[in-house]
Hints:
mainly alpha; 6 helices; 69% helix
Amino acid sequence: xxxxxxxxxxxxxxxxxxxxxxxxxxxxxxxxxxxxxxxxxxxxxxxxxxxxxxxxxxxxxxxxxxxxxxxxxxxxxxxxxxxxxxxxxxxxxxxxxxxxxxxxxxxxxxxxxxxxxxxxxxxxxxxxxx
Length: 130
């Protein structure tokens, strides 16, 4: 794991929420645009930052990352599918809470029975988009 700015518990909660957005977008793509997904991610980070759950500097770094994704998306929309965009944002969150790769944090979420990721993976077969 890299340098940590957000606690692991909070980071995993954010990652779980973002992954939930990705799953819903995969299941119902007609209801989720990249812009909508970025808005939902932005809202999650804003709430976590505004309530003091994550440090302001980390929240601002994540919001800046979202804005960077949004800017790149407008320049090259063909490269930014919902799935790709969420994975890019997830990588920013993972880096802030000390994870070096997707495998590490998804493995951790799979070990937490209270996570939506765990419940989806172990509960609804055939509806888990990897």
